[in-house]
Each structure stands twice: as structure tokens, then as C-alpha cells.
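Re: [ENG-882] Designed sequences occasionally contain unexpected residues at chain ends

Forwarding the minimal case from QA. C-alpha cells:
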């Protein structure tokens, strides 16, 4: 019964809010990836952001419980999240001949982990800004990058023919 009452505790409610915000922001980025037919979509991004936030929230809770009793640094947990996401991202990057794919998806997951960590540390404005910036990068810069590539292809073919 005491555990159920802890669920209603303001501290626990705040943690649940943090986790919810992290999940929603990760999901928002993943939704854009889904519309671009990428392998990692809403669920992957939401889970990465949520998991990162969870590790930060846990490290805060544990460090507060053991304050003064042990030398616990919550940033150690955050640094290990970066290592873990590197492992996940490395599995997404594929090469076929000279073509490399999955780098943008891996980078997006890495940023999503950072968003989750920012929410975990109560940096809501920062996490929302980075979510919107990431969506800008995935959408607007995709169109700009495509236009530059098309321009480059048109003009490089003229140069090869001696024009």
C-alpha cells in the first residue's frame, strides 16, 4: 500500500512528468523519421529518449537518497548513456560499396538520447528547443541538401564532358 501512495507523491509525479515529456519529444522526432520511411521511427526514438531520461531520473533519485553517504556522480550515468547510444547507432550504420547509410538515423538517435537526458535533468526548454531543431534538420535541411545534390549532379556532368 505504501508503494501505491508513493505513486501520488509530488516527487514521483514530477519524475513521471519528466519521463512523459521525454517520451513525447522522442516520439515527435521519430514521427518525422517514419514519414521519411526510415528504419528507426516513433517507437525507437521514443524509447531512446525515455530510457535516457529514466537513467538520469534514477541517478538523481539515488544521489539524493545517498547524499553525503557516498561519492555518487549523476554525470557518470549520463556519460554511459552516450556510450550505450554509440553502440546502438553503430548497429544502424551500414556500408555497401562506397555507399554509407544510417548515419543520419544514428545521429538522430544520439540527439534523442540527449533530449531524454535534458528532460531528466529538468532542462525542459533546452529539450524542446533541441527537439524542434532536430525536426528542422530532418525536414528543411533534407530539402536543401537534396537541392544542392541535384544542382551538383547537373553541373558536374557538364564539367566531365568538357563543357
Amino acid at each position: 500500500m505504501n508503494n501505491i501512495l508513493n505513486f501520488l507523491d509530488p516527487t514521483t509525479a514530477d519524475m513521471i512528468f519528466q519521463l512523459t515529456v521525454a517520451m513525447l519529444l522522442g516520439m515527435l522526432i521519430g514521427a518525422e523519421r517514419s514519414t521519411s520511411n526510415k528504419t528507426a521511427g516513433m517507437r525507437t526514438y521514443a524509447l531512446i529518449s525515455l530510457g535516457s531520461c529514466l537513467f538520469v531520473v534514477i541517478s538523481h533519485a539515488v544521489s539524493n537518497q545517498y547524499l553525503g553517504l557516498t561519492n555518487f556522480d549523476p554525470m557518470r550515468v549520463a556519460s554511459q548513456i552516450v556510450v550505450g547510444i554509440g553502440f546502438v547507432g553503430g548497429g544502424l550504420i551500414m556500408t555497401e560499396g562506397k555507399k554509407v547509410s544510417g548515419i543520419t538515423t544514428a545521429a538522430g538517435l544520439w540527439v534523442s538520447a540527449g533530449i531524454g537526458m535534458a528532460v531528466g535533468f529538468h532542462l525542459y526548454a533546452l529539450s524542446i528547443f533541441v527537439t524542434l531543431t532536430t525536426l528542422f534538420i530532418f525536414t528543411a535541411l533534407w530539402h536543401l541538401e537534396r537541392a544542392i545534390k541535384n544542382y551538383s549532379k547537373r553541373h558536374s556532368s557538364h564539367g566531365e564532358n568538357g563543357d
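QA comment: On inspection the terminal residues look reasonable. The longest helix spans residues 124-160. Proposing we downgrade this to a documentation issue.
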